[in-house]
Amino acid sequence: MILTGPEIEHQVRLGRIRIEPFDRERISPNSYDFLLGEEFCWYESVTLDCRKENKAVYGKLSPDGTVLYPNRIYLAGTAEHMGSDHYVPIIRARSSVARLGLFVHVTADLIDIGSFNAWTLQLHAVQPVRVYPGMRIGQVTFWKPEGRIVLYDGKYQHATGPRPSLIHRDFEAQNRQESASQQ
Ligand SMILES: O=c1ccn([C@H]2C[C@H](O)[C@@H](COP(=O)(O)OP(=O)(O)OP(=O)(O)O)O2)c(=O)[nH]1
């Protein structure tokens, strides 16, 4: 079950949803609009490797706008720290942003219960597009879960800005398990 906008606001007041800072003007009928943070990064290398740490270059979006180009993935943080121990957040672009061909995530829209962070957006432009820090770029919805709740305690917890992929850690953990079982 998805929460309506007024219910999102009610849950924020109760502290069961955290959106910091919160602006009630950004409540929609069944979502809350979040803002694009200032910091962003992109990978140094064009070819990425899942087993290795892919080095990222960091920058700040200009108040006069920064053009994002196709064929790259840009990681940017939400301006807000958000999360809930009670509801499942799911993020998506605002329709007005999608209409410019700008993706705000690349197939990773699901946020874990208990993940409280500045979430990392995976910006992907279909054609060059100028974006601005602080613009209303996406919306978060909140869904009522069914079943016992286990809170997120993963590798992206406590992120304060955009975080490059840490998938190489999965391989490192697997290697450690394999060498332990061989001893
Ligand atoms: O677009 C997204 C999607 C998720 N997250 C954050 C919140 C989420 O709770 C966390 C982990 O997401 P997921 O479980 O999909 O990633 P993972 O690669 O499986 O990480 P982990 O091994 O920590 O579970 O990353 C983002 O910042 N942006």
TrEMBL record:
UniProt-recorded Gene Ontology molecular function terms: dCTP deaminase activity
Keywords of the record: Hydrolase, Nucleotide metabolism
CDD domains: trimeric_dUTPase
Source superkingdom: Bacteria
GO BP terms in the entry: dUTP biosynthetic process; nucleobase-containing small molecule interconversion
InterPro entries: dCTP_deaminase (IPR011962), dUTPase-like_sf (IPR036157), dUTPase_trimeric (IPR033704)
Pfam family of the protein (one): DCD
Protein name per Swiss-Prot or TrEMBL: Deoxycytidine triphosphate deaminase
Organism of origin: Planosporangium flavigriseum
